[in-house]
């Protein structure tokens, strides 16, 4: 039997974990409450839906629930048909995660925002296995990704709830969009100061990595990724291999301009444009080469080496962005994400 001090401490713990922002505000009707045979506990949602469950199942899934249901029930506690009832602050939609513990068929929410709220509820009640199951479903593509400004909103929520894998995932999604006041809109209010600073720093480091990647393609080396383009008569009139070796090797002007322009755009427009340079580079490449249509040398290289050069450039840009990891820190400044326990989608 717990002492009164232990009981009060456990109740305080649960109340501190309760957060009305963790509820999903949706226009959908509440989830249908479910019952299981021989249930000995009722979980009641904030919208008064009852979930009849087993104490033992709930205790195994959540240490928080285990502590809660182990407390002596006060005399004024509600009893429904002889079964004790526990009132929680979450909506029935959020408490549907309890159904994952039973083989009754559970459906993933139809929005990423709702998934984040479920994961936050799992974190609040320390339902580790349920949280892992939901994340596995997300990685399998069972839930749509947030689009546009919603990526920033999702990131702000993930940071507020310290959902570490989702902080990394949503930070990457924001790179696909400009990071301006117009895009963030009212969502800017959702960010805590440290979270916004970290996201800006992450974006800057991604830009630095992309710029370094482009610089490697601007280097004219005999074994470099752009070596096949050495010899354009517009910039190197001498055509014999011996004369080319003696001259300063330079890239065709159109290719140099293409790579240099993207470098400058990244540096000066890192917030006003998306960082999807890998998806824009092909169109820019084709347009620049067409404007250089009279050069038989460059068109010959294009026909013979186009695919390998373009795909090498695109893949390197993708990898340059992917290798930058976000430093996921809490408001207290503690780092939670280490290379060995990062979660990726």
TrEMBL record:
Checking InterPro entries in the record gives:
BTB/POZ_dom, SKP1/BTB/POZ_sf
Q: Which CDD domains match?
A: BTB_POZ_ZBTB_KLHL-like
| One Pfam match | BTB
Domain of life from the UniProt record: Eukaryota
Query: What are the residue boundaries of the BTB domain, all occurrences included?
Result: 37-102
SMART domains referenced in this protein's UniProt entry, alphabetically: BTB (SM00225)
Q: What is this protein called?
A: BTB domain-containing protein
Q: Which species expresses this protein natively? A: Russula ochroleuca
């Amino acid at each position: 039997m717990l002492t009164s001090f232990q009981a009060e401490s456990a109740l305080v713990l649960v109340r501190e974990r309760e957060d009305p922002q963790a509820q999903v505000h949706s226009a959908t009707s509440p989830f249908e409450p479910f019952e299981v045979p021989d249930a000995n506990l009722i979980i009641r949602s904030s919208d008064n839906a009852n979930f009849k469950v087993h104490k033992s199942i709930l205790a195994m899934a959540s240490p928080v629930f285990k502590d809660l249901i182990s407390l002596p029930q006060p005399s004024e506690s509600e009893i429904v048909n002889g079964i004790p009832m526990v009132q929680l602050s979450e909506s029935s939609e959020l408490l549907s995660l309890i159904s994952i513990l039973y083989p009754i068929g559970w459906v993933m929410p139809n929005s990423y925002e709702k998934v984040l709220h479920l994961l936050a509820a799992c974190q609040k009640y320390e339902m580790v296995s349920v949280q892992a199951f939901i994340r596995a479903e997300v990685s399998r593509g069972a839930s749509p990704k947030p689009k546009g400004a919603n990526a920033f909103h999702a990131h702000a929520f993930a940071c507020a709830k310290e959902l570490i894998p989702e902080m990394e995932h949503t930070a990457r999604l924001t790179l696909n969009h400009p990071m301006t006041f117009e895009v963030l809109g009212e969502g800017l209010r959702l960010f805590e100061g440290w979270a916004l600073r970290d996201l800006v720093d992450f974006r800057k480091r991604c830009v630095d990595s992309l710029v370094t990647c482009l610089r490697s393609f601007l280097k004219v080396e005999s074994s470099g990724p752009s070596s096949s383009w050495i010899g354009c008569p517009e910039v190197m009139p001498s055509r014999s291999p011996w004369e080319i070796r003696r001259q300063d090797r330079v890239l065709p002007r159109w290719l140099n301009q293409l790579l240099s322009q993207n470098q400058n755009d990244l540096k000066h427009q890192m917030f006003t444009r998306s960082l999807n340079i890998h998806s824009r580079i092909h169109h820019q490449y084709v347009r620049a080469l067409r404007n250089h249509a009279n050069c038989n040398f460059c068109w010959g290289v294009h026909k013979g080496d186009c695919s390998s050069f373009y795909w090498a450039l695109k893949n390197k840009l993708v990898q340059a962005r992917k290798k930058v990891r976000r430093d996921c820190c809490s408001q207290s400044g503690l780092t939670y994400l280490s290379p060995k326990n990062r979660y990726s989608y």
